[in-house]
Amino acid sequence: MARLPRLTLPGVPHHVIQRGNNRQPIFASAADHTLLLGLLADNAKKFDVLVHAYVLMDNHFHLLVTPQTQDGLPQMMQAVGRSYVRYFNDSQGRSGTLWEGRYKSTLVQTERYLLACMAYIDLNPVRAGLVADPRDYPWSSYGHYTGVRNDKLLTPHPLWWALGNTPFAREVAYADLVHTGITLEQQQRLTQSVLRGWALGDADFVADLQKRTERRVSKAAAGRPVSAPKSQ
């Protein structure tokens, strides 16, 4: 079966994941993490993509972004991917591919899933058993949103600003949100939607997206009414 074209729409949050080939490590040192974050910051600015959250894991990374143009996200990911592979191959004395094919992404309903997606991303190191507290993981957006550091890569979403009237209130509210965690259903929906490329949101959100693109946005069979994606 031919793969679906990647779905990208400006002004809508996108959850993105890029994996290493055969789940191999894509980082060998702290310098590698820093280099990739710098590439993301430079190219997000160049291609007009707002980055709201990220986490760099051993063999993959997640992003939550809102592209401002139709082609901004794929252009950013292509530029970052190519530059990082050249750097990593040179530094490690290797050749060949680093990525497991093209990146995967999905559109996320802002009101229903954006903050949950941020928490999902920042909780990745905890779920993987790398740290007990997300505050202890240096390669995620959690530190920025809880006042530990200032991250030039990130553009906070309006929903984050609405968490409180002062920086301290927002930081405490976000820390509480992450430490409360997300439900198993939310985790499954967030995982399956990004891996399969189906839009994540309620029926109205999915139906509205479908009006904006010829590419199917949910798992519904062609010719049938569009409905909200179900957890797998």
UniProtKB/TrEMBL annotation:
Residues 9-124 form the Transposase IS200-like domain. It comes from Rhodoferax ferrireducens. InterPro entries: Transposase_17, Transposase_17_sf. Pfam families: Y1_Tnp. This is Transposase. NCBIfam families: REP_Tyr_transpos (NF047646).
